[in-house]
Amino acid sequence: MDILIVEDDQDIAELTAWNLEKQGWGVSMQADGTAAWEHIRTQRPDLVILDVMLPGMDGFEIARAMQQEPLTATIPVMFLTARAQLEDRLEGLKLGAADYLTKPFSPKELVLRVRNLFARCNSLGGHRIIRCGPLVLDKDTMNAALDGSALDLTTAEFKLLAYLAERPGRVQDRYELQSILFGYADTTQSRAIDTHIKRLRQKLGAHSALIATERGTGYMFVPPAA
Fold it and tell me: What digits encode the pLDDT tens for the residues 123-154?
């Protein structure tokens, strides 16, 4: 799990990060609201822990922007803030926050809340996200992003790309791919897959090499070098 902490108090940010990293979760930190929104929009963390009072965009503005953007609307938000008034809590919940914890806080309680939040998301089915280099695919909403920008794919293109991306480095036979897309494999129509691949590569642009051809067999997803 990748967690973004948005907190301008360095001591609090480092304490929070240290406790979360001990649980094996990946953690990033941002101290400026505007920079945090750019991080969220391009990196798509699995959870955002968000202060309210921030330089640049405040926490409520970030949460509002996340809700308005389809590619970030599904990312859960936990507010961690000194704003403890009822109206602040209500505002956070109205903006779709999954939890609201006030300062001062117990690190043990924070970890428990994060663990429960992830468990709750999983029990509800969660959002199945495929991340590979510049590519992000959300299998539940069928939204796709490339280099932080929305990628306009047809349903067939999305299914094909997601199927390949979930099996990196493994060649997929044309007829198998045809069965995945259309529910049947017809040797007279196998070139339909080639057409979809051609269009996908055009849409991937500079990243078209993510899909490699295995001559005479099919196609393979090639993850970018780290």
Answer: 444 456 777 778 888 887 888 999 888 899 98
How many other β-carbons are positioned within 10 Å of the β-carbon of residue 29? 17
Nearest Cα neighbor of 31 from 61, 47, 11, 45 is 11
The H or E element that residue 80 is part of is strand 77-81
Question: If you ran DSSP here, which 8-state letter would residue 104 be given?
Answer: S
Cα–Cα distance, 25 to 2 (Å, whole number): 6
What is the arrangement of strands in the sheet containing 135-138, beginning at the earlier edge strand?
A: 129-132, 135-138, 143-146, 149-150
Query: Quick check: 28 and 5 in contact, CB under 8 A?
Result: yes
Q: What is the pLDDT of residues 203-216, one digit of tens each?
A: 999 999 999 998 88
pTM, two decimal places: 0.57
Selection from 2, 27, 44 nearest residue 134 by Cα: 44
Instruction: Tell me which amino acid residue 85 is.
Output: Q
Separation between Cα atoms, residue 194 and residue 93, nearest integer Å: 47
Cα→Cα distances 195→80, 167, 179, 200, Å:
49, 20, 15, 9
Element (H, E) at 38: helix 33-43
62: alpha, beta or left? (left if phi > 0; alpha if psi -120 to 50): alpha
